[in-house]
Amino acid sequence: SLHDEECDYLFKTVLIGDSAVGKSNLLSRFAKDEFHLDSKPTIGVEFAYRNIKIGDKIVKAQIWDTAGQERFRAITSSYYRGALGAMLVYDITRRGTFENVKKWLHELREYGNRDMVIVLVGNKSDLVDSREVDAEDGRSLAQLEDLCFMETSAKENLNVEDAFLQMITKIFEIV
Length: 175
Ligand code: GDP
Description:
This protein has helices at 23-32, 77-80, 95-99, 101-111, 135-145, 160-174; strands at residues 9-16, 46-54, 57-65, 85-91, 117-123, 148-151. By secondary structure, the protein is an alpha/beta fold.
């Protein structure tokens, strides 16, 4: 199984952001190439693994999903403990999820590693007609806060691979 496969590095990374922005679907798209129309009501932390080859090294990315805990403001410091990277997700069709990015950054800086790699992701880029956040807004916030930035669609599988790989290769460069 994946768990027993040999690897050179194990990187813990976390998904954060408001409820229903698409965190679980980004993860299932990246880890299993699956997309689900209904959000999972599961409560409790879940994670998935994917092995990535960088040069001649094998990196095992362990990606944690909040699995709904953010709804209860119940994400605890153990969620962030040891995480080298974070994917901070908002929904481009709901302005409020973008306004809350600052709140999530604050929490990351409170609980997370100081040099955590953070990728800001505007998800649901396929929903062009209901867009409430311009790509430019995401880009300038990312620039201001010194984050990587990307718009994705877990549904259409756009940039999902790129967003995770950007986070993981960036971690690889600093460890
Ligand atoms: P989470 O609560 O942040 O984990 O969000 P989920 O992954 O459960 O997704 C919430 C809802 O948004 C579900 O109904 C998904 O099918 C939908 N969704 C997630 N990603 C996308 C996307 O890229 N495009 C569209 N159109 N819907 C998405």
